[in-house]
Amino acid sequence: MNQINKIWQKIDPFSLRVRLTIGIAAFSTLGLGSLAIWTTWKMQQILINSHKYNIERIADRLPRDVQIYSAMMSPEQGLQKSVDSLINTNTFIWIKNPENKIIAKSNNWDELSDTAASELMSLTEMSVKPQVTKVKQRYFVLCGGSLPIKGNVLGNLFVVQDVTREQTMYLAMVQSLGIASSLVIIIISVAIAFYIQRSLKPLRQLSHMTEVISAADLPEAQLSIDKAPSEVKELAQTFNMLLSRLSQSWEQERQFVSNVSHELRTPLTIVHGYLQSVLRRQNNLTPTQLEALETAALEAEHTIRLLQDLLDLARADSGYLHFNIDPCVLNDLVIEVVGMAHKYSDRQIIIESTNQTIEVKADYNRLKQVLLNLIDNAVKYSEADTPVIVKLHQQGEEATIQVFDKGYGIPLQHQSRIFERFYRVDENRNRSTGGSGLGLSIVKTLVESMGGSVSVRSRLGEGSVFTISLPIS
Q1: Fewer Cβ atoms within 10 Å of its own Cβ: the N or the C terminal residue of the chain?
Q2: pLDDT, tens digit (0-9, with 9 covering 90-100), for 41-84
Q3: Beta-strand pair 453-459/398-405
């Protein structure tokens, strides 16, 4: 039962497979149902309607025979003679006068049980049209009407034929036909479901192939499906053309960002240098001029950092970002980074690590850039009286660096997107705090380029934990 529930939960009621299966099964049901109804009607024609016609013919003929025999003998003898001449196997006739007394009947009633015979004879009227009725586990075709003789109604005529064998056969055939039709519909539905599943396999392959394509794969991404229908192959070719256009657009965008960042960084660096030079001679400046120049220098410095970040990302996307991967001791690196952070902030930064020396293969300067970025974020987005904690430890074949802060925290719905470029969670993460929305994206790019991974865990009002994992050397 649990297995069935799991399979049922995996079924998508809006999928093409389910829709096609239901549609074809519905048409199959309609077709087989119509065939079953026609077959049932035909069987009834063959098995039952001939008996109805027979007793209807007897009911029509008996009054004429009574008139003929009554002319040659007494009415009572003519009536009985007419009844005896019309009876055959399983056919029973009787006549009741207006006082509901039997005045004539066929002489084959011993073929029926006493209970069935008495119940039939107790009937006071019958339909003029033959009908099938069940009496004491047996089936009879009943037909009746008045018996007029020479303008006078002699009584009521009752004609009955036992069709138990035929009706039982008919009902058994109807039941068997219903069961067989249901089984055929189920088998057809299951076969159709498997066939459709197999037919849609190329589409699923196409879907799986497109799922794993990333921006880095665009230049070489090609979808190819063997033994697929022509329509699916055409769809794959269309996808390939789309991927080619996306690759060209992506490459043009990266080239544009790289060129713009490179071309703007040099003149802005010169401008920033001139501004710093002028600020060093601030004795000749008015307070207004000094404030304007300090603002311009700050903005120039911020823009240079932004352009450098964009240039690093563009180089990483193009595969041109250079790394010097060498063995480095994380303990020394963390101490150096925390010392550098103390120069720019008076925040308390605590290092928690074991006495064990942890060595990894990484780019020392890039890893230092990553840690400075994370510590800078922790300082910016937490209260001034709370410490920032840097933990260093080794788990199996991985070295882990964790940066803890007791800041505002990051909402759960944003945690999966904070490593995206230019993504900011809220108004607290804007340019007033020096953020450009690229810091965490660069952290992720640099760490993954060195064979590691970075993740975040955060709760609102409690702070955040950024974890860097690197393979040990």
Answers
A1: N
A2: 777 777 677 777 887 888 888 878 887 887 788 777 888 888 88
A3: unpaired
